[in-house]
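Lab manual, section 2.4: Encoding a predicted structure.

Procedure: take the sequence of the chain (477 residues), apply the prediction step described in section 2.3, and record the output as structure tokens. A sample record is shown.
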Amino acid sequence: MKISRFEGEVSKSKAEAVIIPFYEDRIPSSSMEFLGIDRIPESVKNTGFTGKKGQVFRAMDTTRGQMQLWTGLGKESEYCPETFRRSYSSAYSYFRDSKIRNCLIILPGTDNANEAFEAAYILKLTLYSFDEFRSEKTSADLKEVYIATGEKQDIIDRAVSVAEATNFTRNLANLPPSRGTPSLFEERSREIENLKITVLGRDDFIRMGMGGIEGVSRAAKEPAKMIIMEYGSSDEKPIMIVGKGITFDSGGISIKPADNMDEMKFDKSGASTVLGIMKLASDLKLKKHIIGIMPLAENLPGGSAYKPGDILKHYNGKTSEVLSTDAEGRLVLADALAYGVEKYNPAKVIDIATLTGACVIALGNNIAGLMGNDRDLKEKLKKASERTWEKVWEMPIDDDFRNQIKSEVADIKNIGGKEGGAETAGAFLENFVNGRPWVHLDIAGTAWTQAKTAKADYLPKGATGFGVRLLYEFLCS
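Recorded output:
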């Protein structure tokens, strides 16, 4: 699909379909110019269309031979970027099952640069489909899209790159567990230009004292890997981004219930996001020094599996008592964080992980948990979140939570009880960053959608790619 800025008078467009915005209390001048009206006709109001958020009225303009998608934005005083995303996505959804090959997008004109970006970005997210394993493909027929904007094509091209990296991440996270393996992640990482790749395996874990990832992966036949990717100049201290990559999580000996266990293919979403942001940095040639680390393993039961009661020794020498083998993500992240901090001396550290069900209980499916040890880093990520659909909420790590994970037989234990489960997981990870400025993002609720919790038309059922645009906005700021 090619997305371009429209050149010429919109009224002379030959597009098969046109998206036209409406407020409840006003018609944007761009829409008035195209339609030649200054209010919604009574005949249209009688159909129920009043310009409310998310409403879409389809009308066939027989004179122009165009399908018009009148798109409601709600009250102008309440208009915001998320309103734009959701409302335009509702209109874009029409293209999933239509034979429309080209369309023109008219913008409200409130914030031209941002709207041009969002129009292209959300279109790519809305029309994404994971159909690699379907005999009948579900991709839309749309081939050419024109955005009526005075902004430069560069803004649209950048939006397309960010969206494609997000969809690349969604593809990885959506892969079934027997396909989306640690080896597949290595293949994908080596396909990205401008990355220096280092891969550690089981022998390295044993030799280097990475007891967390060695223990978690012990019963799996699929070899675990820790993939380290370096992008950009080595003259400045890097930003290090670490993503949890449990390519399938059965819970191990502390096995999960059978219901919804298929969703544990999404436990690799953090690693998928890291690979997505590294691809984006390369595609856009960002002038940054970035280290991306993906600890990748399956968590399965078996005769050689690590067990509740085991004590693991991590890369930095700290020991952890295993009370639940289903709290495995923090164990593999611990080694990745400790290794990356020592090896690369990063200026800032961010980890992203589908870490705790407790975070889902606390914040639901639309907000990620944010915690860490550096106020400035937390604030920058919050501000980046305000520019995207990826919402975050700060959660505390204090001495009460640190005390909850103290062990009587090791330095720390890998769970601290039901109370404050998200925060105690963060407190566990804090032990492995050696005081570096660090933020932990718990995306357990936001990494994928189910039918009952679908976030918007632009994020249908499946992986969301949460974190790619958030981290891109952070890096650019």
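Check your result against the sample. The radius of gyration is 24 Å.
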